[in-house]
Amino acid sequence: MSKPQTKKRVGVLISGRGSNLQSLIDAARAEQYPAEIALVISDKPDAYGLQRAKEAGIETRVIERKDFADKPAFEAAIDDSLRSADIEIVCLAGFMRLLSPWLVDRWLGKLINIHPSLLPSFKGLDAQGQAIRAGVRIAGCTVHFVTAEMDGGPIIQQASVPVLTDDTPDSLSDRILTLEHKIYPEALAMLANGGVTLDRNRATFA
Ligand code: GRF
């Protein structure tokens, strides 16, 4: 296989343990992978994902909401960091804040998220618990473009898992997480190499 010309520079926004970040870091190590993780931003100084990034030699920034007068100033700082690092694609990976339409619009078509449900079912927090309480037999995860509607943007990639009769939110989360780590790198690669684009609020596949 031939070497990709240039890898797209990716920024990852996290708030916590960063296992999805790790899956992206690991995938991006491959020479043929079309993206590199160039910057990790956390809104929590103690996020374990920051350690993962440092171990991988990736630049990190902590941008805390409390250090800014309002949400627009906080988001402007995130945007400035991304732009000054020449970031081309942004991945949300367990980033526990809703982005405003201002930031979403600035990155529209270049901003993706992973959510632990088969969207459009079970948006928001505790998606795995919502799935168990609803009694669904199949659950899963979704990578989607981020739009102003929370967990509502066009879908890029999904994977499903069975819900077992004795599942708890934790056991189901573990089973879903294994697949998150598979589909997030796949979806990022698709976006980075032009295999998917956002076109008038639809995901268009090449
Ligand atoms: C994952 O379940 C992801 O789908 C959701 O938040 C969780 C983050 O986990 N958005 P991690 O920090 O990537 O381990």
Task: Provide structural commentary.
This protein is globular. It is of the alpha/beta class. It has a 7-stranded mixed β-sheet with strand order 3-2-1-4-5-6-7, sandwiched between helices. Strands 8-9 form a two-stranded antiparallel sheet. It has helices at residues 19-28, 48-55, 71-84, 101-106, 127-134, 169-192; strands spanning 8-14, 35-42, 59-62, 89-92, 111-115, 138-145, 155-162, 196-199, 202-205. Helix 1 (19-28) packs parallel to helix 6 (169-192). It has 6 helices and 9 strands. Strand 2, helix 2 and strand 3 (59-62) form a beta-alpha-beta unit. Bound molecules: 5-O-phosphono-beta-D-ribofuranosylamine (GRF). 5-O-phosphono-beta-D-ribofuranosylamine binds at residues 16-20, 93-94, 114-116, 177, 180.
Counted by DSSP, the helix tally is 6
Q: How would the global form be characterised? A: globular
Whole-angstrom Rg: 17 Å
Which segments are poorly predicted (pLDDT under 50) over 5 or more consecutive residues?
Answer: none
For the biggest β-sheet, the strand order reads: 3-2-1-4-5-6-7
Number of DSSP-assigned strands: 9
Average pLDDT value?
97
What is the terminal separation in angstroms? 20 Å
Specify the helix fraction band.
Answer: 25-40%
DSSP strand (E) fraction?
25-35%
What is the succession of H and E elements?
EHEHEHEHEHEEHEE
Bound molecules: 5-O-phosphono-beta-D-ribofuranosylamine
Query: Tell me about the biggest sheet?
Result: 7 strands, mixed
Class of secondary structure makeup: alpha/beta
